[in-house]
């Protein structure tokens, strides 16, 4: 329809995308074959059938298992290019890719292979599709502070090619306070700051992300809405929220998309954006997320334009580049 064409044609930035979460079952099989890695699935259909989650941890278990087929620099290049090829069709002109180095270095992959493969895919995507991109190094919060420090140290030779640090994985029981010192060290190195907070975790975790990590944007942030004073603070700070509707549905953060708070966020004046999180696992890329939430909550074209504009103002692009996009 016209509405779908409008969504796809809207130039947008994607701010919340785990590149490992864009590994489609087809590529998983191809890499398993190429690298002679055994996977516990007989077919692409069987893989897709296993993607039924009742919470974040359910998903993470299968997501980390899937990442095991990624073994070489070329694999990371191909993974990134597959994402950009798909994102180009959705009107993505800029993407800030989160990657989880610990998922790979803990399996014995050199950090250099992971990041050089991604950077190579990012260069190819800019040449082929004109999509600009940057990297967000995300620490796994279920692992220790010490492990996060070791990861930051590994990244040292590439700091000029990493825009920001982030925090992801199992939220409940791993509050932002656990990583306050690592994030302070990252800030001192000139890295920008984001963190997942308020996806499953309570509003207090969002507060900690602001106070202790000094986040410049908030990944998810849904549960911040439970605390009126916190909402007022997010408003006054002009905080960007990277919201992921289909992820929220698949991970049971919302029971139904009809209950999703995205339009409430917009009505409150919060700078919400729409993103795909882990598109291969949650059944849709960024335009699918725009479409699904627009339909479920009756968003107007004006709302969609606001969401797309927020994706640029909330990006880590230089101000003058943002100005060219909004
Ligand atoms: N890692 C990949 N996707 C994630 C999500 N939605 N929340 C936390 N960690 C993640
Ligand atoms: Zn995420």
Automatic annotation (TrEMBL):
Residues given in the record as substrate binding sites: 278
Protein residues bound to Zn(2+): 16, 18, 196, 277
InterPro entries in alphabetical order: A_deaminase_dom, ADE, Ado/ade_deaminase, Metal_Hydrolase
Residue ranges that the Swiss-Prot or TrEMBL entry lists as coiled coil: none
Active-site annotation: 199 (proton donor)
Cofactor: Zn(2+)
Pfam families (alphabetical): A_deaminase (PF00962)
Annotated site residues (Important for catalytic activity) in this chain: 220
Domain of life: Bacteria
Domain Adenosine deaminase: residue ranges: 11-323
Catalytic activity, EC: 3.5.4.2
Cofactor note: Binds 1 zinc ion per subunit.
Keywords for the protein's UniProt record, in alphabetical order: Hydrolase, Metal-binding, Nucleotide metabolism, Zinc
Catalytic function, reaction form: adenine + H2O + H(+) = hypoxanthine + NH4(+)
Enzyme class: hydrolase
Similarity comment: Belongs to the metallo-dependent hydrolases superfamily. Adenosine and AMP deaminases family. Adenine deaminase type 2 subfamily.
Role description: Catalyzes the hydrolytic deamination of adenine to hypoxanthine. Plays an important role in the purine salvage pathway and in nitrogen catabolism.
HAMAP family tied to this protein: Adenine_deaminase
Entry protein name: Adenine deaminase
Organism this protein belongs to: Novosphingobium panipatense
Taxonomic classification: Bacteria, Pseudomonadati, Pseudomonadota, Alphaproteobacteria, Sphingomonadales
